[in-house]
C-alpha cells in the first residue's frame, strides 16, 4: 500500500514537472512571439515614417522645382511652350506624390522624374543665358555699328555742308558784277535811225540803258542774257506787253522786263546797251532800274523824266 502510494506520488510529481516545463516553454514562445511582433511593428513604423519623409522630401523638391520653372522666361516661343509643358507636368507630379504617399516605388519614380526635369531646367537656363549673352553682344555690336554710322553720317553731312558752302561760295563768286550804269531818255528822227537824248517824258520813246559787266574768271563764259526791269513813277513794271513773252525770273521771283540784251561773255569786262520801252507814253517822274543776269539782280540805276 505504501509502495503504491509512493509510486502514485512520483507519477504526480513527474506530471507536475512536465506541466511546469510545458508552461515555461509556452510562456517563452509567447514572449518570443510578442517580441517578434513588437519588432515588426517598430520596423513597419520606421518604414512608414521613412516613406512619409521621402514623400515630403519629393513633394518639397517638386515645389522648389516648380518655383524654379516659374522663374524661367524664354523669348523663343517654341522653348517657352516646352517650358510651360514641363510646368504642367510638375503640377501632375505634385498631385501624384500626395496620392501615392505610402508607395515607396512610386515615390522613387517621382524623384527620378523630378531629377530629370531639373536637369532639363538647367539646360534651359544655360541656353537662355547663352542667348542673353549673345543678345547683349549683338546689342553692343549694334550700338558700335550705329555709332560708326552716326560718325560716318556726320562726316557725310559735314562734307555735304562744306560742298554746299563751296557751291554757294562759287555761285556767289560767279555772280557777275555790273557797273557804269546809266540811263537816258531818247527819241528817234529820220526814220528811226538817228537818236536824240531828251529829259522830257512826253518826247521820250525809249529809255536807253548802258552798263558794263566786270571781269570774273570763275563765272561760266558764253552767252549771257541781261534783263532790264524798270519801275515807273506810278509803281508799275515797264513792259511792251504783259504776257509770258516778257516775263522772267529774278531773285526767286518773277516779273516783266522792259528790255534785254544777249552778250557773248568771255570772262572779261564787256559793255552792253539796251533800249527799253513800254505801252503808250512815258509819264513824268523817277524810273527805278534793276539789271539782272543769271536770275540775280547785279546792278541798279535810275532816270528822271520831266
What does it look like?
The chain has 306 residues and is an alpha+beta fold. 53% of the residues lie in helices and 25% in strands. The protein is built from three helices and ten strands. The strands form three sheets. It has a four-stranded antiparallel sheet with strand order 2-1-3-8, with no helix packed on it. It has a four-stranded antiparallel sheet with strand order 7-4-9-10, with no helix packed on it. A two-stranded antiparallel sheet has the order 5-6. Helix 2 runs antiparallel to helix 3. It is rod-shaped and about 210 Å long.
Topology:
Layout: H1 2-70, H2 77-99, H3 104-174, E1 178-189, E2 194-198, E3 206-213, E4 222-231, E5 247-250, E6 253-256, E7 259-265, E8 270-276, E9 285-293, E10 296-305
Antiparallel strand pairs: 1-2, 1-3, 3-8, 4-7, 4-9, 5-6, 9-10
Helix pairs in contact: 1-2, 1-3, 2-3
Key descriptive features of the protein:
rod-shaped; 3 helices; four-stranded antiparallel β-sheet; 306 residues; 10 strands; alpha+beta
Brief synopsis:
With 306 residues, the protein is of the alpha+beta class. Helix content is 53%, strand content 25%.
- Uncertain spans: 45-49
Which secondary-structure class do the elements indicate?
alpha+beta
- Estimate the mean pLDDT confidence: 80
Question: Strand share of the residues?
Answer: 15-25%
Number of helices: 3
Residue share in helices? Answer: 40-55%
**Can you tell me the overall shape?**
rod-shaped
| Rg from alpha-carbon coordinates | 61 Å
Strand order within the widest sheet?
A: 2-1-3-8
- What composes the largest sheet? 4 strands, antiparallel
How far apart are the termini? 203 Å
Strand element count: 10
Element pattern in H and E: HHHEEEEEEEEEE
Amino acid at each position: 500500500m505504501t509502495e503504491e502510494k509512493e509510486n502514485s506520488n512520483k507519477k504526480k510529481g513527474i506530471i507536475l514537472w512536465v506541466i511546469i516545463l510545458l508552461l515555461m516553454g509556452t510562456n517563452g514562445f509567447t514572449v518570443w512571439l510578442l517580441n517578434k511582433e513588437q519588432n515588426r511593428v517598430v520596423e513597419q513604423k520606421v518604414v512608414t515614417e521613412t516613406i512619409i519623409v521621402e514623400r515630403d522630401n519629393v513633394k518639397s523638391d517638386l515645389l522648389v522645382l516648380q518655383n524654379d520653372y516659374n522663374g524661367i522666361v524664354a523669348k523663343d516661343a517654341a522653348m517657352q511652350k516646352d517650358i510651360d509643358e514641363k510646368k504642367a507636368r510638375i503640377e501632375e507630379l505634385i498631385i501624384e506624390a500626395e496620392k501615392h504617399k505610402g508607395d515607396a516605388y512610386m515615390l522613387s519614380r517621382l524623384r527620378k522624374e523630378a531629377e530629370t526635369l531639373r536637369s532639363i531646367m538647367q539646360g534651359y537656363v544655360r541656353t537662355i543665358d547663352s542667348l542673353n549673352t549673345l543678345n547683349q553682344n549683338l546689342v553692343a555690336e549694334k550700338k558700335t555699328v550705329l555709332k560708326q554710322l552716326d560718325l560716318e553720317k556726320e562726316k557725310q553731312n559735314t562734307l555735304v555742308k562744306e560742298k554746299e558752302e563751296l557751291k554757294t561760295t562759287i555761285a556767289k563768286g560767279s555772280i557777275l558784277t555790273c557797273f557804269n550804269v546809266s540811263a537816258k531818255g531818247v527819241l528817234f528822227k529820220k526814220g528811226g535811225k538817228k537818236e536824240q537824248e531828251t529829259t522830257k517824258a512826253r518826247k521820250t520813246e525809249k529809255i536807253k540803258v548802258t552798263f558794263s559787266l566786270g571781269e570774273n574768271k570763275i563765272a561760266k563764259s558764253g552767252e549771257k542774257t541781261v534783263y532790264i526791269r524798270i519801275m515807273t513813277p506810278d509803281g508799275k513794271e515797264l513792259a511792251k506787253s504783259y504776257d509770258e513773252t516778257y516775263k522772267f525770273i529774278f531773285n526767286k521771283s518773277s516779273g516783266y522786263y522792259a528790255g534785254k540784251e544777249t552778250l557773248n561773255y568771255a570772262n572779261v569786262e564787256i559793255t552792253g546797251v539796251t533800249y527799253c520801252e513800254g505801252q503808250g507814253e512815258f509819264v513824268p517822274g523817277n524810273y527805278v532800274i534793276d539789271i539782272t543776269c543769271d536770275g540775280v539782280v547785279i546792278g541798279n540805276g535810275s532816270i528822271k523824266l520831266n
